[in-house]
Amino acid sequence: MIIGEAAAASGISQKMIRHYESIGLLHPARRENGYRSYGDADVAVLRFIRHARDLGFPLEDVRRLLALWRDHSRASADVRRIALDHVAALEEKARSLQAMAASLRHLAAHCQGDARPDCPIIDELANPEPEGTQR
Questions:
Q1: For the residues 6-19, what does the mean pLDDT come to?
Q2: Do the domain assignments include residue 114?
Q3: For residue 135, what pLDDT is reported?
């Protein structure tokens, strides 16, 4: 199949398919005329990548997971370790996002939200506290 068909079958844009090929995640066959030719196995790889990316795995982890997927003698412990490391990173990101939301919620609560120009949100953005300073 051609790239447009592979894109439709996998749910990944043609641009991203080309990107995944350029970074070595995908290796479609080439026809005599130089065009890429995608088979069912390529679409399966693309679906694997899409699902891993939907779960937030960074590309380097996707690369490692693809290698493990292709290795039928893999140890499931290796896959589990990658997944749990990713869970820890997601949980840290969630804590960071919660802290940002709390900070913005606090600033918004102290903003009058009226026609006056005074605004603690703008003041904070213009004059942040030095790193390591607690609020």
A1: 97
A2: yes
A3: 52
